[in-house]
Structures are given as structure tokens and as C-alpha cells.
Amino acid sequence: MGNRARTGHQDKSSDLHNKFSMLRAQLETLSDSKLLSKTQALNDRERKLGLTVLFHLREIDKRRLCLPLGYNSLFEFCTRHLGYSRVTAYRRIQGARSIGRFPEVAAMLLTGELNLSVVSLISGIITKENIKNILSRVSSKSYRDAEISIAMYKPIETKGRDRVKPVCVLEKKSASDIGTDSGTQGSGKSLNVETNPCNYNNDTTNEINLCPDVETDSSGEVGSFEKTVKIELKQKFKLEFMVDPEFMKKLERVKSRLSRKYPGGINFEMLFNIIMEEYLERHSPEKRIQKREKREANKQNIKTTPRSKQNRDSNKQRNHEQQNKLRHSTQETGNMNNKERSRNIPTAVRDKVYKRDGGRCAFVGENGKRCDSTWNLEIDHIVPFAKGGNNSPENLRLLCAKHNRLEAERTYGTDFMEKYYRKE
Predict the structure, then answer these.
(1) Segment holding 283, helix H or strand E
(2) b/e map 391-416, b = 16+ CB within 10 Å
(3) What is the pLDDT of residues 278-335, one digit of tens each?
(4) Same domain, 96 and 169
(5) 358 torsion bin: left (phi>0), alpha (psi -120 to 50), beta (else)
(6) Domain check: are 149 and 50 in the same one?
(7) What is the domain range of residue 87?
(8) What phi and psi, each to the nearest 5 degrees, are found at residue 104?
(9) Domains of the chain: total
């Protein structure tokens, strides 16, 4: 029986693999427009099918059909019988019950003005009296934006006190980091790992037995490092405070400006560290003292320099500054001859382009829609620099990294650009 079951499973897997291979081959033959239109059609069908599932779940709930099957709730039926995740089950149950009470919700799910995440968010607060107002607030919005829009319906009682709570967190190290640790030595019957205790003095250590059953070889050493993990207790602080909408707007602007350096995103600890370091660099007394001492040292050096050499150095410095001003002025106008052309775009020009484009991607699609992304922005030459384009603001625009790459592929070809991508 066991061999027969395994053979049947292998046949089914092979059949599915063949079907998916055929599907991939078919998709590769589609034109861009055909692929987009088919995807849109499938999305519409999926939305209708999803709504049909909700009506079925609602009817199952009404008839209490879960009980005869041995499930004590619709949630247990969805997770154990239908195989939904807990989050998916919760959202679909809330959606099923909401469309039973309010047909308007079903209509908006069908048109795509609502999604199940938002429906599960509003399911506990909508009534016959407020449903029109709530639906107008959350229509066509993401979960996060909808959450902001209906916050007034979920007020919390708080004095708005800032809270700082000391906590300890467990940080794991991979097995490859443990090979030389003292915890891998000894009898081999267990693995004792030293950790930093969660205090400020760090004058004692705790031992945690992580792997009491780790097998050893004849030499008495641990035979499998894949089963070992080193855990350290780190002192942290949990901050809790409330902010107004203006604070959040500024926060998003700062994160957008840092997205070139951190394209994968940045957490609050990193973000606040950057901001605080910059503030301290400008305003801390220690930094001012260092700068003052440096200026005094420079003055002393100037006094000890012979007069004639001092004059020559002063003239050289003055000529150097004048040349820099002339070069920057020439770059701003974009009227540079071939020798003076440079890819370096002055900060003043960058700022002018950023202000003109509103700090957002200026790419406009074939359908007339502007990208407007604030993430990972780059300066792009409309007439490419390699084809004679200059650094004047009129020839520059803001593009997000993805649209900048798209424009480069349109200009030079995908095969040509792939060489640069591989180098990166």
C-alpha cells in the first residue's frame, strides 16, 4: 500500500509539473499587451470566484454544517478542513458574515473597491447607521490607509505618555559562527553556550544547554554543527509614543531620502540613529570644541609659515576657488565643451531638479499615469550623457531605480545593459 501511494503521488507531481511547463511555454509566446489583458481577465474571474466562496461559507455558517463534521467552529473548519492559514480563515469568515449583513460590501468586493483585508478591518465597527460613511472612507484604499481613515471609530483612552521599557532580546548566531566557540568543547554529551546576561554590568555569565542529545564521534567532539545555535541575550529598550499625522509625513519623507542608501528599507532604530548622529554633529558641544581647536591649530600653523610662502599659498587657494566657481557655473548651464564634460552633477542642480519634480519619480506610462514613487530615486539624463546630453536641469529628471533601468534598456537594449547588471 505504501509503495502504491508513493507511486500515485509521484505520478500526480509529474503530471502537475508537465502542465506547469506547458503553461510557462504558452505564456512566453504571448505579446506584452496580450499578457496584461489575460492577467486582468483572470483577476476579474478570481474576484468573482472569491466572492462566490464567501457566499458558500456564509451558507455553511448559517446551516452550522461544521458541527456534524466534527468541527466546533467555522474557523476550525476553514483551517483544518479547507487548509486555510489562520489569517486567511479569519478574513474570509469576516467577509462572509459582512456580506450577509450588508450587500453593499459584496458589491464593492466584486468591483475591487474593497479587499478582504479592509473588510476584516471594518467588520467589527460597521452598522446600518455608519456604513455609508465608513465605506466612502475606505473605498479603493490600502489596508494601512483604511486603518488611518477609520481610526476615529476606534478611539483609545490614553494620556499620550511616552514610555521607555528595558527589555532583553534573544539573538541567534548561525552554526558556522560556533565552530571555534568554547561551547563546542568538553564531554560532547551536551552543548553549553555562554550568553551575555541581561544587565548593564556584564560581570557574570549564564549557561544554556541547547542540545543535550547531540551525537559525538570517537574523539568526543560534537559531530553535527547543523544542530547547534548560539544565543545571546542583548539589552534593548522598547519605546512607545504617539505622534500626529504631520510627524508621519516627515518620517516618510526622511525614509524616502534614505532609500538610495537603504533600498531594502530601514527600521526605526537605524533611522533615529542617523538623525540623532546628524543633529549631534551639528549641535553637540564636543563637536564645536573639536572644530574650534582645529581652527586654532590652523591659525598657529599660518603664523609659523614664512610670509612669502604664506602669500603664495594664499594666491593658490584663491585661484583654486575661482576655478571651482567657474567650473560649477559652467556645469549648471550645461554649455561645456568635450574636455570639461563631467558626469558629476552639482548639488545645486540636483536640488533644483528634485524641487521641480516634487521629490517623486517623473516617469509617465503609455496610459498617461505618472509613477510618483518616492523610493530609491535617481537623477536621469533625458538625452543620455553618452549621446551628448548635458547636465542642465532641463535635461534631467527624477526617476525611481526601476524606471531608470527601464529607460536605459529602451535606449541601449536589454542585452547591452545586462553586462552592467552582472558587474553590479
Answers:
(1) helix 268-283
(2) bbbebbbbbbbebbbebbeeeeeeee
(3) 998 888 878 888 888 888 888 888 766 555 555 555 555 655 565 555 445 444 444 4
(4) no
(5) left
(6) yes
(7) 31-153
(8) -60, -35
(9) 4
Which own/partner pairs from 87-95 qualify as long-range (CB within 8 Å, at least 24 positions apart)? 90/120, 91/116, 91/117, 91/119, 91/120, 92/53, 92/54, 92/57, 92/116, 93/57, 93/61, 94/119, 94/120, 94/123, 95/54, 95/119, 95/120, 95/123
Q: Could you give the residue ranges of the DSSP H alpha helices within 64-183? A: 74-76, 86-101, 103-111, 116-122, 131-138, 143-149
202 closest CA partner among 172, 164, 168: 168
Which residue, among 85, 96, 98, 22, has the nearest Cα to 55 in the 3D structure? 96
pTM of the predicted structure, to 2 decimals: 0.61
Rounded to whole angstroms, the Cα distance separating 119 from 404 reads 37
Question: Please, what is the angle between helix 307-333 and helix 347-356, to 10°?
Answer: 30
Over residues 94-146, the pLDDT tens digits come to: 999 999 999 999 999 999 999 999 999 999 899 999 999 999 999 999 998 99
CA pair distance 345, 391, nearest whole angstrom: 6
